[in-house]
Amino acid sequence: MKQHPLTFKIASEPEEMEQIHQLNYDTFVEEIPQHQQNKSRRLIDKFDKENIYIIAKDNDVVIGMIAVRANRPFSLDHKLHNLDDYLPKDANPCEVRLLSVKREYRKSRVFYQLVNLLVSYCLKKDYNIALISGTDRQIMLYKKIGFEPFAHMVGTEKARFQPMYLTKENFETTSKAFTKLMTQKKKQSKLLNFLPGPVLVSNEVEQAFRKTTISHRSIDFINEMKAVRTKLCELVHAKNAQLIVGTGTLANDLVAAQIKKLPGKGLIMANGEFGYRLIDHAERIGLKHYTLKKEWHDGVSIEEIEDFLKTHRDVSWIWTVHCETSTGYLYDLHRIIELTKKHQIKLCVDACSSVGIVPIDFKDVYLASTVSGKGLGSYPGLAIVFHQEPVVPNNEIPRYLDLGQYAVADSIPYTHSSNLVSALHEAVNKVDVENRHILANSARKMLTSAGYMVLGNEDYSPGILTIALPDFLSSQDIGDKLRENGIIISYESHYLRERNWIQFAFMGELTMTEFESAFSVLQQTLECKGKQV
């Protein structure tokens, strides 16, 4: 559904009044049984001619309202015979009524904006006390606004109301509180997520995730799972793809369990956090392997790999990350594939941070892992393993780590999440590698032109830009300040803190305009500290 800016105003048009009557009916007949049903499904308030209606609109649709009037008698005059006895002697009261917000907007800023405009209107009219019959379902909410209960409950058993009032002094305090609250909510609504996961998802992916959950044994789910797997294979030129409920760590354990069946020893390369994690995966499961270890951010050349293979003839497989998430370093997968084909050894790839980010061809890759919640632009929770050769169950492998169990069951041997699969299905349709490359290159140029030290060059992954901060700046402080301003970057991982690095990841639903906004906040943050990069 296309999102429109919300508008808040005093109702003035005939079509707005008609929608007010319909919203009035939905709330005070259907939801709160205060009035009788009717065929027209319209409820015209008995004080309609006197009411001032403050409304919220989404495009042309009235999605919220609140009414105010000052003419006596109030509705409370008919419910409390001695209403004035409860009011201060200098009271200049108005009555607030008919607060209603459509269900789908109740957890948004609509309510706060309506009340803010109401407060402004009442102060302008010099009303010093506002009365309300607060439904017993929302008494705590009214108290938070500043309304104080008085007298006894009124109404019927089906629709009970508490008389409440708000003074001028509380009006002013509430106005300030709402202004502050709305400023905070505005910042929250504009959070820009530059994390490598979880990423900011598109509206379409969010809607797909919200579909009604269905059984993983239903034909609809089975068909959608098949469609997602087919599209994933087409995206990376693989023959098979298995989806498992889990993370990238699980996907790599599944790969490790399959590697263990291969003869000979392997070679694992590492020049960052996730390359070294592959070594840890191998050691935990007992893989026989060599390692080619480099310092973080140091490149691993094809010549180095080939020289190693020439002196270690027993190597039958290689396992490497494609994009080293901790730095953005991108291994030359094309040349590594050529090398493994030349030496007739199997290649396994951790592509958790590269699928959906850069063009990939797994046609000659034995096994590869990725996840739903990074470059594919969906929610975290699905581990994905690609394989070229058929895989069969193996009872020597724990059930959950046995890729063969998934292969023979079309990826549904156990309970699955229809919501995650639907979201991933929508996300795969939206993958745009070319646009991601253009965006990241423009961002890199903007950062380097401003004097920031960005690791690597355009040969690095467009999905991750790693900035090495000078010693006089703290990555923790900079990250915290950006977060306070609605910019979420990667800086809290121990390996980033240790090196005083921050990262902007371009794996979610982001635009250049949004990065420019984030860049501006970054610059302002540094200026506030009186530092220069």
UniProtKB/TrEMBL annotation:
Q: How far does the signal peptide extend, from start to end residue?
A: none
Give the matching SUPFAM superfamilies. Answer: Acyl-CoA N-acyltransferases (Nat), PLP-dependent transferases
> Which cofactors does this gene product need?
pyridoxal 5'-phosphate
Indicate the segments annotated as coiled coil, or none if absent.
Answer: none
> What is the protein name for this chain?
Acetyltransferase
InterPro entries the record matches = Acyl_CoA_acyltransferase (IPR016181), Aminotrans_V_dom (IPR000192), FeeM_cat (IPR054597), GNAT_dom (IPR000182), PyrdxlP-dep_Trfase (IPR015424), PyrdxlP-dep_Trfase_major (IPR015421), PyrdxlP-dep_Trfase_small (IPR015422)
Q: Where is the N-acetyltransferase domain?
A: 6-169
Which keywords has UniProt assigned to this entry? Aminotransferase, Pyridoxal phosphate, Transferase
Please indicate which superkingdom the organism of origin belongs to.
Bacteria
Pfam families named in the record:
Aminotran_5, FeeM
